[in-house]
Structure formats: C-alpha cells, structure tokens
Design goal:
Blueprint lengths: L29 H6 L3 H11 L1 E6 L3 H9 L7 E6 H4 L2 E2 L1 E5 L5 H24 L10 H10 L8 E5 L4 E5 L10 E6 L7 E3 L2 E6 L6 E5 L5 E6 L2 E6 L2 E11 L2 E4 L1 E7 L5
Antiparallel strand pairs: 1-11, 2-4, 3-6, 4-5, 5-15, 6-13, 7-11, 7-15, 8-14, 9-10, 9-13, 12-13
C-alpha cells in the first residue's frame, strides 16, 4: 500500500510467472461468489458509510495459499518496508503480472459491480461517469496513462506493527473504490490489527470507523473521496485508511486495488 502517489520502483518484467493460487472448487468460482452478494446492500452501505462488507468470500485454504506466496520471490515485483518511509511498521509486497489466479479472479469479478457504483458517484461529484464496464478496459486506460504496473499486494504485520492513515493513489488514473481481504484468523493468528477508516468532512472534525473482519472476509471502501448528500446538496468527503497496532501474532492481508501504477 503506497502512502504516496508513486510507489517504489519494482523489479523488471522479464521474470518467471507468479505461482497460480486456484480458488477452492468446493466453494464455487470466485465470479459466482461475487455475483451472489447482495449488491444493492453493498451499494447502500458504501453510500452511507464509505465502506461495505463483502462477507467471507475466501476459504481458509485459499487464505493459507495466498499467505504461502509471500516467500515466493517470483510472485512479486517489489517489497516495501514501512518504517524507513514513515508509513508505519511492517512490510508489504506488490504482486507481479501475471497475478495469482485467485487475485486476478477477485479483481475481474469485483470490478464491474464496483464500476456501477463508481460511475454513480462520479456523476454525483460532477465528474465524467466513464469507467469501462470490464476491468481489462480500465487497465487499458491505465496503460495509456503511463500506469502499467500491478497494484494488488500482500501486507505482513508482526507484533507492534501498524499502518498509518493513507490513500492508495498511484497516478492520474484512480479508481475510487478498493477492497481488502483478511487472510489471518483474528484471535487465533493475531490480536489487535483492526482496519481503521477516517472520514474528513468539510468544516468538521474527522470521523473514525473501526472495521472488524473475519478470516477470508473482504471489505470495499472509498480510495479518496466519496459523495455525501447534505441539506444543501451533495458534497465530497475525503477518506483514509490504516491498520491499528498488532498486539500479538502475525497478520496478513490481501489488498485489491483496481488502478495500476506508474
């Protein structure tokens, strides 16, 4: 997760393919799981709070398989240690293309549903409501804007680690929604380490939300700004996200960001 508009330079593209993490067949394809969600309720929650649970979409076996890729060098294009950059404590790695199958499937399945919400938000904010209906179409736009590098990432936190409040902005092209999935089991693998969201409303103090997650559960939330209906019309609020201090154990998270990076 970058705390700046331009992430750390990655390793060159001429490398072996990343390990393929397949979806658990007993749980059904990722696309079917995503399609089965109540997207009306997801949209309503995003409108009301700026975030929405996606439920437990990943099985424990899928979570474990993703965590196991963390030590596979060929799966990633770069590694970032947070403390020297003032981002917090802990580390994260950006996946290389081709993405693991499970990550690619999540990105492709979630994007069209979130694009409907993103276009509605853009219209409310007076911006072009022109996000393409499929993710490859949007990636083509990122490529044309000079943003070719993949942004999905794995984050690793140990005891005392945390992530400062930030936004995942990587260039001029920015999809307004993203998702994270908790891969570790709270209470069993770690304690502490809650997802934290803040909302800066005009001429008001920031509001904080703590979002508890179960293993395999995803949450979608605003990357930067979202529309809010006020007494005098729609206004925009700015959101940031982070992770509170891990008190015990180890916490892994998958971040699914839909725009690519410079």
């Amino acid at each position: 997760m970058s705390h700046t508009t331009t992430p750390t330079s990655g390793v060159g593209s001429g490398r072996a393919a990343a390990p393929r993490v397949a979806a658990d067949a007993t749980a059904g394809p990722i696309a079917a799981r995503v399609a089965a969600l109540d997207w009306g309720a997801v949209g309503a929650a995003l409108d009301e709070r700026g975030y929405a649970s996606l439920g437990v979409l990943l099985t424990p076996a899928e979570c474990a398989a993703l965590v196991a890729t963390y030590d596979a060098a060929d799966a990633f294009r770069s590694r970032v240690v947070m403390a020297p950059r003032g981002y917090g404590r802990g580390e994260y790695k950006y996946f290389a293309y081709p993405l693991p199958a499970l990550v690619a499937d999540l990105r492709a399945a979630l994007y069209p549903r979130l694009a409907d919400i993103a276009n509605r938000w853009a219209a409310l904010l007076g911006r072009p409501a022109d996000f393409p209906p499929d993710h490859q179409g949007y990636l083509d736009r990122c490529q044309a804007a000079g943003q070719p590098r993949p942004t999905p990432l794995l984050l690793k936190y140990g005891v005392g680690d945390y992530n400062c409040l930030h936004q995942d902005l990587y260039g001029a092209e920015c999809f307004p929604l993203q998702a994270v999935f908790l891969l570790s089991a709270p209470g069993a693998d770690f304690t502490g380490g809650e997802l934290v969201l803040t909302e800066q409303r005009p001429r008001m103090q920031s509001r904080v939300e703590v979002v508890p997650l179960a293993q395999g559960e995803g949450v979608a939330f605003a990357v930067n700004q979202r529309p809010v209906q006020g007494a005098r019309g729609v206004y925009r609020v700015t959101m940031r996200h982070g992770v509170s201090r891990v008190r015990a154990g180890q916490r892994f998270t998958l971040g699914v960001i839909f725009h690519d990076a410079r």
